[in-house]
Every structure is written in structure tokens, then in C-alpha cells.
Amino acid sequence: MFNDYDIRIDNTFALITPSEISKIYPLTEEMQKRIRGYRKTVSDILSGKDSRLIAVVGPCSIHDQEAAFEYAKMLKKLSDEISDTFFVIMRTYFEKPRTNIGWKGLIMDPDMNESYNIQKGLITARSLLLRITELGLPVGCEVLDPIIPQYIDEIMSWSSIGARTTESQTHRNLASGLSVAVGFKNSTSGDVSSAINAIKSANSPSSFIGISKDGKSSVFRTKGNKEAHLILRGGTSGPNYYEDEVEEAAKQIKQSNLLDAIIIDCSHGNSKKDYRKQKRVLRQVVEEVIYGHSSIKGFMLESNIFEGRQDITENISDLKYGVSVTDACISFEETERILKSSRMMLKNREKFIF
């Protein structure tokens, strides 16, 4: 008998439900309390109640959980040393949007061989997020697949929507129901209006189709996310972290009665895709904060144990430890240096004001 449906589907596999994976890797009451505290801190910084800056720091993408955990331990130590100035969130990105083809991230392809063992990827991601949280370090993720948040939502302290999905109505609806503050990046062209519109949409109650914790297809009605905010990441039109661009973005935000909060991505279009220039962007961001640009609430850095990037090889055991397989990153040594220098600038800001 000929079927008129799923004619291009090779096969299907049952997937572990969010409820089942939560039982295997549960959140303790202590961790729940800790995450609630992290989320409140993010909220307080975005609203201006806390004068520190959010620092989202970590690998472009995570492909090796042990290297990521070693990085987390190093970052936790640094975080403690600069906590009077920065609230450090580890960038824990497991999904990678692709314009055409390429590795889609640890959740979709944990073995990095196009076997797409998604269940293994979900288990690996959740267990790693728990380990990092147990260290006392908050985590932030990019939300790409609209179903995946059900598996990790309660662990996140901050989230982002990428430049390629900011215009997606699905992601705007999803963001309106996320349990954490969510940053929308400007489009890859550098246009900010799409992100402003996304924030407006996420602010409002909405509905979308997803899966419940027990794996059933469900309709989710949201309350709206008033902590949606803008991330400036530059674009093909050039960087947008300079004073004029920040002031114009802040003007648009205020005119739309949105949360007056901007996070600057020091990588991507702002660094012209040269990871070594992230330090220049960060210095400029710090100077703008010193000179009174109160809309700036934080920044993002792509950082790993070691600098640079590498291609994925057929034998993944040949990969260099602690080196990115997606965008190039600065080393942890460089990360420590520029964050400590930035802290000193902010602590001694009166020397820089003129």
C-alpha cells in the first residue's frame, strides 16, 4: 500500500521525554535555589538595580564535555575574583545554526560524525549543565530548536536567540514563554529593527505548539517575557558597538517602551570575525560604560582553554584539546587578562572621565 505521508522520512526513533531525563539528572533543591538567585541577579542588572555588568563568557560551541568542565573550573575561579564588577555566566552553546551545511552542535550530533544520536546529545548537555551549575557558575544557552528548552530550561540562567532566528515567529513566541531573560541578536546584515520587533513580540502573551514534560504534543500559552533585550553583534554592514550605534539602538528601545538593556557581543561582526580583536571591542564597551552609557548591561566573549579553531577530522581523537571546532576563540589566559584589566578600568573610572 502506498503512503502519501512521510515519503522523504527514512526512519523515526522514540526520544526520551523531558520528564524522564529530569529524573535521571535531577535538580536538587539547593541548585534550584541557586539558579533562582542567578536569574534574579540577571534581572537586577538588566533593570539597573545592580550596577555590575553581565559577562557571558565561554566557547563558541561545546564539543568536548571534559574540556568544557575544565574550562568551567577555571572560569569559576576567575568569576570569584571579579564578582564585584562582573556577573559571569558561562556560555554553554550546544546548538549551532547553519546557513548551509556543517556540524550542528553537541545536542544534534554528539559523536561529530553525522550519526545524529540526539538522545545522547540531550543527556550529555543536561548532565554537563548540572555539573557546571554545581560548581557555582550560572549557564547561558542559545535557543535554536523549539523543543530542546523543555529538556534544559530549568537549569539556564540566561538565554539568547541568534541572528539567523531573530526574525522567526516561532522563536519569538518561544522566547515569550522562556523562564529566563532572553537576548535577541541583530540580524546578520547588522539591522537592529528586526531584533527590536522580536523583543516587542516576546514581551507579549502568545501561543505555540511544543511538547510537554511527558512528551505529549501540547499548546503552550505564554505570559510574555518582559526581560527580552537587545544584543548588538555587528553584521555585514560593519560593527555596531561604537557610541553612535549604541545610542541609536538605545533610542529605538526607549521609543518602543522596551527594557533599556543592551548586551554587546565582542565577537562576530563586531570583531569582523577576527577573534583577536575581541579585546578591542571590550575595551571600547568598558569606556562607553565609564562615560555614562547606562543602556549597556553586559558583553559576550568567545573564549576557550586555548586560542584559535580547528576543523573536525574523521578521527575525532585527533582533535586538539580545548580548541574550538566552530568560531575561533581567545585563550583562557587572554580572557583572564582582559577581564581583570576591564575590572580595573571600571574600579578606577574617575581616572578616565574627562
From TrEMBL:
It comes from the Bacteria. Its EC number is 2.5.1.54. GO terms for biological process: amino acid biosynthetic process; aromatic amino acid family biosynthetic process. Residues 43-339 form the DAHP synthetase I/KDSA domain. Keywords: Amino-acid biosynthesis, Aromatic amino acid biosynthesis, Transferase. Pathway: Metabolic intermediate biosynthesis; chorismate biosynthesis; chorismate from D-erythrose 4-phosphate and phosphoenolpyruvate: step 1/7. GO terms for molecular function: 3-deoxy-7-phosphoheptulonate synthase activity; identical protein binding. NCBIfam families: aroFGH, PRK12755.1. This is Phospho-2-dehydro-3-deoxyheptonate aldolase. It comes from Candidatus Ornithospirochaeta avicola. The lineage of its organism: Bacteria, Pseudomonadati, Spirochaetota, Spirochaetia, Spirochaetales.
